[in-house]
Amino acid sequence: MQEEIVTTNKKMIELKNYESVLIVKDAKSLRATVNEILKTLQDRPIMYLNLTTTYNSLVSNLKKDGLNINNILFIDCITQLAGGNVSDQENVLFIKEPNDLTSLGIAISKFFESIPTEKWLVFYGFNILKIYNKEDIVLRFIQSIFKNASENNAKIVVLSTQVKNDSLIKKMAQFFEKVIMEIE
Amino acid sequence: MKTEQIEKIKNAFNDLPEHWLLLFVINAEDFLEKNMVILNEVLKQEDTVGVYVTLNRPYTVLTKILEKNSINTDKLFFIDCITKTVSSENVEKKCLFLENPQNLTNITIAIEEIMSTIQSKNKSLFVDPLNTLLIYNRAETVSKFLHVLTGKIRVLNLNGVLLTTEKDLDPEFADQLEQFVDKTVDLSK
Fold first, then answer.
1. Does B18 touch chain A (CB under 8 A)?
2. What range does the domain containing B29 cover?
3. What is the ipTM of this complex?
4. How many domains, in total, are found in chain B?
5. Do A60 and B144 touch (CB under 8 A)?
């Protein structure tokens, strides 16, 4: 696997050329970047796992930005935790909380297996997993997603913020084909 | 306060989603002054009713400050997390007194309870200042609480203003927090 760390303000890379991409930026830039990625990939099947906000709020913001969300399956790990209504809806799976990595893993692998063609997992707010889980558990979880993805023709984009000397991001970077770090 | 800072506060409320969540990072020196301008901006919005969670100033002190700054307290309810830590409180119609800022679950329940009694469609939550939570709780616990609280603000279709002072935040905590909100406004410079 080729690992490259980019520390300059490069423009968005050609995502489609890579099997897996890790993007580490400050919170403000990261939000704009994820919308760009979703726009770039909007004609392909996407599973969008966002750990920072609820499904309803997310969908209304994406629609406001003019994004076509028809090809997106959302995973929401907050609504239930915050006591919201999680009635059945077609394009969203509700996970009880971000420490339920088993359910999360099952949801991801079902998505990977259900689509024979190329599909994408876009994982936003990755570092939030650290609030709920130990670092080694998160690493094992990521490793299992990679295994699943390689068996099922799935591609992965993980977006995260990073603070100085964040060991999780450093350890995780080795799994990715392309690593983009735009932090001070 | 500089005119540009006032403009910055006013502009923060532009181009937001229907229900929004803002984080203001304020320097300790003019925290109160900026806090008043922000609160005034929130309450200026049509039909807004606010719930003010106070973590540092007791309700009686806070209301006096608000009145002095011509803030219309008729449009506000309060959750006071500090009075009971220092004295027994008086019963107030518009204020819930909680034991201390350590019981984060109680804060969430109190917010939900008060919000459910407010009829207005435009409800705002004001948390002042959330870095105080770090005095009473571990950073990890506060991170979880804020993840749930911001989720609740979304679920209940509220607007939210979170205030914090710049010096007390550790980078990891600040970083997580920034991801939960729609916009971060740095008024510390």
1. yes
2. 19-187
3. 0.85
4. 1
5. no
